[in-house]
Amino acid sequence: MNIPKHIVLFTDGNRRWAKKNGVSSFEGHYQGYKNVIRICEWCKKRGVKVLTAFGFSTENWNRSDKEVNYLMKLFEKGLIESLEKFKKDGVKIKIIGQRERLPQSLREIIKKVEAETKNNTELYLNLAVSYGGKWDILQAVKKIIEEKIPIEAVTEELFENYLSTAGLSSPDFVIRPGGEIRLSNFVLWQMAYAELYFSPKLLPDFTEQDLDAALEEFDRRQRRFGK
């Protein structure tokens, strides 16, 4: 089977899952996070090298303070609880997004987790927190301007070195559970040629069998890149 090297995962449907199951939205987010960790493990077993998961968008700051604060604490708790597993499984963690907007306590945990997993090579896990595709493109443009790079030197390859995913292969495959069919301002530049897959399953219900079904669909696709 042709396995994608880099998968983008939307973490969609946690609140709808909570409503369907009669539990709080907070519990929905927690179950969604736990499933992301499982999906990470399933991807590694199948030979995927990079997983980029959407954790919290730049637009999510518009949610209630109570929900935002809960999600920030969930990231802290989740990263610390998963650290030993990341180290055991050889998973390298990187947080992409607007770090300056995150609580100081979360930034400290991110620094610790990234430092303790930096030499791992089995799977590269990008967690996007306070991230937006438009923001990523704009911050790359600003850096290029600040460094006074001559306009004739600005190529696609150079530009990609200024994105938050610099150094990684472009995504091959985008998986969006939750039933929505849109890109929602996530890694817009990077997924220019990625294959798209939309599942009606809400994230907490997305199973290992659902991942296999998605990978089988990817294997059937013919990628022409405009040729």
Briefly, what is this?
This protein is α/β, with parallel strands linked by helices.
Account of the protein in words:
The structure is a single chain. The protein is α/β, with parallel strands linked by helices. The protein has helices spanning 14-20, 25-45, 65-89, 104-117, 133-146, 156-160, 208-220; strands at 6-10, 50-57, 91-96, 123-131, 173-176, 195-198. It has a six-stranded parallel β-sheet, with helices on both faces. β3, α4 and β4 (123-131) form a beta-alpha-beta unit. The longest helix is centred in the middle third of the chain and has 25 residues, at 65-89. The model has no long low-confidence stretch (mean pLDDT 96).
Jot down its keywords.
7 helices, six-stranded parallel beta sheet, 227 residues, 6 strands, alpha/beta, 16% strand, Undecaprenyl pyrophosphate synthetase
Q: Percent helix among the residues? A: 40-55%
| pLDDT averaged over residues | 96
Give the strand order of the largest sheet, numbering strands 1, 2, ... along the chain: 3-4-2-1-5-6
Helix-strand topology string? EHHEHEHEHHEEH
**Domains (count):** 1
What is the overall silhouette?
Answer: globular
| Count of discrete alpha- or pi-helical segments spanning 4 or more residues | 7
CATH class: Alpha Beta
CATH homology superfamily name: Decaprenyl diphosphate synthase-like
Write the layout of secondary structure elements.
Elements: E1 6-10, H1 14-20, H2 25-45, E2 50-57, H3 65-89, E3 91-96, H4 104-117, E4 123-131, H5 133-146, H6 156-160, E5 173-176, E6 195-198, H7 208-220
Parallel strand pairs: 1-2, 1-5, 2-4, 3-4, 5-6
Helix pairs in contact: 1-2, 2-3, 3-4
